[in-house]
Amino acid sequence: MTELYIHNGRDVSGAPVAVLITDGVIAEVGTELAVPVGCPTLDAQGCYITAGWIDDHTHCNAHATLYYDDADAIGYRTGVTTVIDAGSTGADNVADLYQQAQRAVTNVYALLNIARTGIVAQDELADLNQLSFSALRTAIQRYPDFIVGLKVRVSKSVVGDNSVEPLRVAKQY
User: Fold this and answer.
1) Rounded CA gap, 124 and 49, in Å?
2) Helices marked H in 18-164
3) How far apart are CA 77 and CA 81, in angstroms?
């Protein structure tokens, strides 16, 4: 059994808080806890202790050509336990993001871009041939616990002259 006692922290209201972690799970939270003999301690003086944060709009596909942040650099190292990649990948390359997520300490989930290739160019939905709902279905079936939703970017720079057509088509899916 591995334990860690974190003390001298503050909650978001400024009140003192201590945490006992046993085998990687929060076992007890309070202001003063009984510390098991020989338990390693971490002094959180000047730090807030909160539940893990979630960032629901990231781009953490290491092979992305436009937007990319390392999941662990923006994740657990900053107190964010979970990130959701917001459409960096589509059905053609979501397997690669999934493999990256398996290597990350941070929990990584994906919004699957309805464009097969995801964001490899700023205007991924200017060409409606990028849409393949059979490919989307296959990807969702392959990664049901990883893909948490679909992403449709409808900015003018993304859709070109297609206006909201990609969104209209995606809603039919």
Assistant:
1) 41
2) 71-74, 94-103, 133-142, 156-159
3) 9
Instruction: Determine the distance from the C-alpha atom of residue 129 to the mean position of all C-alpha atoms in its chain, rounded to a whole number.
Output: 28
Q: Assign 95 to helix, strand or coil.
A: helix
Which residues, other chains included, contact 123 with Cβ-Cβ below 8 Å and sequence gap of 6+? 157, 158, 159, 160
| Residue among 108, 67, 112, 121 at smallest CA distance from 94 | 112
Are 70 and 47 within 8 A, CB to CB? no
Q: How far apart are CA 68 and CA 107, in angstroms?
A: 16
How far from the centroid of its chain's Cα atoms is residue 23's Cα?
A: 24
pTM over 0.85: no
H/E run at residue 171: helix 165-172
DSSP state of 15: -
- Each residue of 102-138: pLDDT tens digit? 999 999 999 999 999 999 889 999 999 999 999 999 9
Task: Report the alpha-carbon distance of residue 170 to residue 150 in Å, rounded.
Answer: 9
pLDDT tens by residue, 53-88: 999 999 999 988 788 899 999 999 998 999 999 999
